[in-house]
Amino acid sequence: MVFRKFGFLLVFMAVAKCISAQTEIPYSRFGIGILQETEPAWMKGWGSLSAAFHNQYNINYLNPASYGSLNFTVFEAGLFGDYLKVKSNEGQSASFTDGGLSTFVFALPVIKNKLGLSMGITPFSRVDYNIVSNNDSVPGLGASTNNFTGNGGLYKFHVGAGYRWKGLSFGLNAAYLFGKLDYSTLLVFADTLNAFNTLRDESRVFGDFVFTGGIQYRFTFGKNKDYFLDLGVDGDLKTNVAATRDLMYVRFTYYDANGFLQTTPQPVDTITNIHEKGEVVFPPRISGGALFTRQNHYMVGVDYNYAMWSEYSSFGEKDFTTNSWSINTGFQIIPDASAYTDYYKIIAYRAGFSMGKNYLRLNDQNLLQYKASIGAGFPVKKVLSEVSFSAEWLKLGNLKNDPLSLTNFRFTLGATLNDRWFIKRKFD
Fold it and tell me: Which of 135, 176, 194, 255 sits at a 20 to 30 Å CA gap from 306?
């Protein structure tokens, strides 16, 4: 058997930090950072089509209605590697590499092909930037420098259920959204002996429940009932997420009382020190899609995603956010699912493409994003499991309209392990 016990569930919370990343992304300074691509490896390879997808072997935790189609206990985990290149419209560029654990999810059928449950942890957003801005000299004060830094991430730990009745399925995920985001801004007068520098330090800690609902419907047709048309919708309501904030302003200098230069800041006084509870408003979101399938041969589909990020606010303050959308298309083909003597014919080959508008809007310009992907699923014979690989090219912004352009190459390796639990033995 691939796995048998529940012991691995205890590590869900321990892997949260492993899912975080360290690549510096300047755009993550705004909103709640860069929203994460949370799909499993097999789904990334063919355009991240999630609204209508369901089968008995894979966990589609983006639409909980899919859980009702499960016939096996399924465990999924993924690893990713990133190569990110950032260019500015001033001719500067920088490259970063990164990697880590992307998903950790499992699901099981309570009633086969009717009622299923899922549990898992996935990343939601991340903040990671370090920006230095050299300001123009001011007569009598000299030059000054701003240093903006931020780090942290948000995660979702979900428990969900889905039920299937004939061709109709519906489900609900209850997810605990948690994490911490840290922001720091320094204003430094490096060449002025008697000037006081300023530090603004802010931390936001999140902890609250959010809910995702979904519905799917399957039309079956063809002489052998092996053609399907699946329709699906999933989404979130507008949610006020509870959070706490620590905000502090400090004046400091790099010189001690005797006028000697120090390597660490020397605090002079605290201007503001606030600890408060509040809310961060997360917007309503909806995804809809259609998927056409010939069983054990090919799938092709399209998704549309829309989120009203213009309603976002944090502790009553708006940010540079706008309504976002994306259109995803993709396909998967298996040359011959029964050709077990020719392994390359039972591999699932995948490709996809998406385009849309990011939820950030800077300098009164929409931030456009594009993504292309390819992938493959390699079946593990005799155990109904699969090892998946995907390669993605992501483009965010362009130097004609935006201050920065980001190009990201992401490689994801995932494992989907299937097993049957709670089988009554006929022989001892």
Answer: 176
